[in-house]
Amino acid sequence: MPHFIATNHNLIFPFTEGDYTFHAEFVHQDFKDQSLIFTTFKHEPFFIIKTTHKNGTLFKAHKATKPNPIGILKDALMLLNKHCDTHSHNLSKNTPKQCILSPYFLKSSDFICKDFDSYFLEIGFGSGRHILNLAKENPTTPIIGVEIHTPSIEQVLRQIEILGLNNLYITKLDARILTNILKSNSAKGIFLHFPVPWNKKPHRRVLTKEFLHQALRILKPDHILHLRTDDEEYFQDALKLALDEKQCHFKVQKNLTQKVVSKYEARWLRQQKNIYDIYYTSLKMDSTLEFNENFSFPYTYITKIQKQKHVENDFFVHINAIYTNNNCILINVNLGDFNWPTTKFILIDHQKKQTFFVGNPPLPTLCNIKAYQKLKAILGG
After folding, report:
1. pLDDT at position 89, please?
2. CB of 290 closer than 8 Å to CB of 299
3. What is the DSSP string of 81-127?
4. How far apart, in whole angstroms, are the C-alpha atoms of residue 65 and residue 39?
5. Where do the DSSP E strands lie in 10-124?
């Protein structure tokens, strides 16, 4: 992770250099040697941690707000570093892939603004062989790829540019959350190839009872979710989900040859491992989801707020850190679903008399909406 350590620094906020603005420093309410620097790049916000280190002061990204591509963060740290006496750093010159601000990389807000319909969805595309071929063979159909591995994302984004695949979009969102907000009866197919089995922690799997329910909801009738796995325990659990689900047909195959073979699948084939396929077919039209929350807060004058946790049957809210700066309070909160929590910042600006989520609000899942309503009550709304 990019960072630097300074023995001395002379930082006065706010200041702007190029496309970057360093707005303010918020000091941790409980640990005065820790703070967050509120930063924007072309109006996109993120936070840089400033904390005590044995060799001076450490500057690094706050992981929950780390911008993409990573070059945005590195350049921000370089600008801060200019105002410091540096002890050490790992701020090498950006490579081309670290600077590509691709129009094909989608943020959470894009899925609220764009009306995706008649698309293919691939979850965990890895090296990208399957999804790139899918985009080539369906040039007029939008393809959405979900991946959390940054090098894989960067690799496929480069291939999109090289191959001119203007129908392929990539996101780093959690697929389990994404399927909760996509339009009903909209997907022409969903591919889940070789997901991490998580046999010792099955709650971390992509394929769960809830995910299957949402996947069948967003699929067009008579269209398919295709699971492909080399893990027999995962296959047996996925088969049980199919048997328990009333709203789908399913078909099972074993060691079926595929047109496109990923590098991982090629490895399993060399090892003569069994490979299992389950095809879940959606049976019906589902009702349309409607989200009416705008995730706004009424402004209330608050001088102090404490860390707190509220746990309900199907959602939670955890205010885990509070930061202050003159007439502002910055709240770090985890919220939503227990297995798929969301991390957000809320800014209470007493000077402008505003309270708002910094950056994009949470995605409008049912758990997030309930958590937001609880937060609104906590903050006096």
Report:
1. 86
2. no
3. HTTEEEEEE--PPPPGGGT---TTEEPHHHHHHS---SEEEEE--TT
4. 10
5. 15-17, 20-28, 34-41, 44-53, 56-61, 84-89, 105-106, 119-123
- Whether residue 69 is preceded by a cis peptide bond, meaning omega within 30 degrees of 0, is yes
Give the model confidence (pLDDT) of 282-303 as tens digits: 998 888 877 777 899 999 998 8
**Nearest-angstrom CA–CA distance, 40 and 47:** 8
Q: Where are the domains of the chain?
A: 3-97, 102-282, 308-378
| 304, 323 Cβ separation under 8 angstroms | no
Report the distance separating Cα 103 and Cα 165, nearest Å. 12
DSSP 202: G
Tally helices (H) and strands (E) across the chain: 9, 20
pLDDT of residue 43: 87
- Consecutive 10-residue averages of pLDDT for the chain (381 residues): 91 95 96 97 94 95 88 93 90 64 85 83 95 96 94 91 95 91 94 94 92 95 96 96 93 89 80 92 86 87 92 96 94 93 95 94 92 94 59
> Dihedral (C-alpha) 68, 69, 74, 75: value to the nearest 10 degrees?
-100
Q: In angstroms, how far is CA 198 from the centroid of its own chain?
A: 19
What is the reported pTM? Answer: 0.85
Amino acid at 178: L
181: amino acid identity, one letter: I
234-259 residue pLDDT tens: 999 999 999 999 889 999 999 988 88
CATH 3.40.50.150 fits 102-282, yes or no: yes
Question: Rounded distance, CA 58 to CA 156, Å?
Answer: 33
Tell me 380's DSSP state.
T
User: How do beta strands 308-311 and 316-325 pair?
Assistant: antiparallel
Q: Which residues contact 356 (CB under 8 A, 6 or more apart)?
A: 296, 297, 346, 347, 349
Residue 268 confidence (pLDDT): 77
**Position 301, amino acid:** Y
Can you tell me the distance from the alpha carbon of 381 to that of 379, in angstroms, rounded to the nearest whole number?
A: 6
Q: Could you give the CA distance from residue 281 to residue 181 in angstroms, rounded to a whole number?
A: 20
